[in-house]
């Protein structure tokens, strides 16, 4: 038996943890039966701790809700030993420490010395090669300490025992080798080891706990703390339900916001014009340098900023055919505008006059009207055209967005619809261009508007 003693903080427990594979050394080497541990992996250290080393702690570290035989069996669970053999090993270890008649008691029914004996039985049950004792008598009285030391001394006949203590007298009385520590250094050693080329006789034994045994231990632990488990499960359920409710409300609110935005934006249709202008292009095309350049003997041809920001869309018949086949779920109502001058005629005060669908001032020159129409067309603004519904079951654009004031909903491509704003007003120029003699703020009865007919004259005629 080798005993390390010294004041607190001298490094005794650290050395014990390194030997037991709990801590890792930075320099040097730990050699076990000629086997270096420098290249040990974590799985190697686990196998070493499970089968080659036993631990005896100052505070016993027994599980209070298990019987003492169950505590001893717990120490050899990781060996993969069958249940019957495991039970026999535990009884044998408890008999060796003199507690055979107490195997069914709980730790709280034992004295301090008896609990330390249980800890010793747990450490030796798996028959380890090395037994590490971290102040095994630190929490015991003098008489009980001597009993425990005699027990450890008898066990040392079969295996190496490394013990840490504060008591140098105890170390000298029972140990065959004593090492005095201070500030992480060895001050004295009664039987120093001389390194030799020792043959490697160490073999790692790899074992693991059975799946069924792990489930059984988990279930036993749950059943011994039923109310704690119930309360923990209840609190966890509340947290999970709360998170689910918050996520559901958040998802619901987001869907409602998306739906509201979709309905609001649906009133502002997407317009694809022949000529489009990039409104943000002017801010992105600013020259970094406004300084005058030197005369280099040449000029550079360059488009104006307006020309650079203008894009011409290739709206071909193939593109129009593609739009007609679009999924109604994306866009169900599509209108088409073509830049064609229609020869429209209508009776005005008993005379046949030419009329037009336009909001331009009828008293302005034709050139001004054409320029205004071209400017409006360049940004996708033009005379309103009744949209074509791709799928009738998904609803009518007019019926969903407008209220019928008089007459009936259009059923043919030649039916015309006069659209007012929410105050029942119509642009005066639009009415004048349709042949109505009106002045500002004049009121027209619906019956004067409903039923008015127009004729189209072919250009060939």
UniProtKB/TrEMBL annotation:
Keyword ATP-binding attributed: yes
Keywords: ATP-binding, Nucleotide-binding, Transport
Domain ABC transporter intervals: 3-208
Keyword Transferase in annotation: no
InterPro entries on file: AAA+_ATPase, ABC_transporter-like_ATP-bd, ABC_transporter-like_CS, MacB-like_ATP-bd, P-loop_NTPase
Pfam families (alphabetical): ABC_tran
GO molecular function term, any single one: ATP hydrolysis activity
Superkingdom of the organism of origin: Bacteria
Protein family: Belongs to the ABC transporter superfamily.
Protein name from the UniProt record: ATP-binding cassette domain-containing protein
